[in-house]
Specification:
Layout lengths: L6 H16 L7 H7 L1 H17 L2 H29 L21
Helix pairs in contact: 2-4, 3-4
């Protein structure tokens, strides 16, 4: 019988889903729920970069570019979470979201 290749990912996926969706009934702030989304992006980046190290030539670049895309996903999620932490609502188009350089860190 053939083994399911993604079987080792099922338990962590279920655990992450349970943790993420339990944040809402517990009354966690929105920025915390968004910050938790850094975990799957980080795991995806690590796995893609590790796969890039195992490949050669063009295949390595394919996996590396996907890993870089996951890194950009992390940056975007971090900026979004920080904006919510500072009181801005990025999901509302009428709310002014300043650039990252405009945030005061005081």
């Amino acid at each position: 019988m053939k083994r399911f290749a993604a079987a080792p990912l099922v338990a962590p996926f279920c655990l992450f889903t349970a943790i993420y969706y339990s944040l809402f009934p517990l009354g966690s702030p929105r920025w915390l729920a968004d910050a938790v989304l850094l975990l799957p992006a980080g795991a995806a980046m690590v796995l893609h970069m590790r796969r890039a190290g195992q490949e050669r030539s063009r295949s390595a670049w394919f996996w590396r570019l996907i890993g870089i895309g996951c890194g950009l996903w992390i940056v975007g999620t971090a900026v979004w979470s920080f904006a919510e932490y500072r009181g801005f609502l990025p999901s509302v188009a009428s709310d002014h979201l300043p650039l990252v350089a405009d945030f005061e860190l005081s």
